[in-house]
Amino acid sequence: MTWWCSARGTAWDWTWQAYPGVWLFGALLIIGYLGAHRRWHPDPLIGDEPRRKARRVVAYVLGVGLLWMAADWPVGPLGAGYLVSVHTVQYLTFAMIAPPLLIYGTSPWVLRGVLRSRAVWSLLRALTRPLPAFLVFNTVMLATHLPAMVDGLSGSQGGSFLIHMAWLGSGIVFWWVVLGPLPELGPLPYPGRILFLVLNVFIPTVPASFLTFADYPIYGLYELAPSVGAITARTDQQLAGLMMKLVGGFIIFGTASVLFFRWFQREDDPSASLAIPADPVRQ
Fold this sequence. Notes:
mainly alpha; globular
């Protein structure tokens, strides 16, 4: 049974295919979310207000929905073995778009419940420091776009799943630094978050430049894949490079702009604070 999308090497058609592993992954994210909120439900006096709670639920469900769409048919198989431009859409979704929605959508008291495990606390605290997060995010981004990695892993379901989970994990580490959801983990001040975002703009230009300006397709998998429509392998690759550069840059600079205005508002009104009250257990 095909449980996760991978390169098949057969001619593309628009016949629907089932990928139960993708459905199971999405279901586990939703079930885990509901179970965690039920297990670590706070005292009503310190819980989220109804409007904020509704926004969190919408954000989380949207994040899970985007992951599902990026991994399931038709995006999943197209990205796994036919079009590198769709592969790039998957990367942007798994690493840049869905993670901040999942983080924001999870209530702080649930995050604190998960972090009651000393091992999880220590690991997350180590990974979400600016330098480790920078290294993890950019190392995963570069490694998973190497031709040997893409051509070697995308042909198997396990390899394709591994790439997707590496994107998602590195994206969560990256956006945790930017969002700073728990004050007891020592989030960066707004200037630090803005600087962190800006510094992460430059390294992605390396694979984006290779994709955009290479004179020939750099991935054998997509060069030799059966054609989908009239798009050539080189045009497809150039489109992928442009998306990585422009869409990724738009997400980063757009977020940096929002943080700048929030920083300005906070400086203008000292009583305004976006921080969540810290857990006294961790104080």
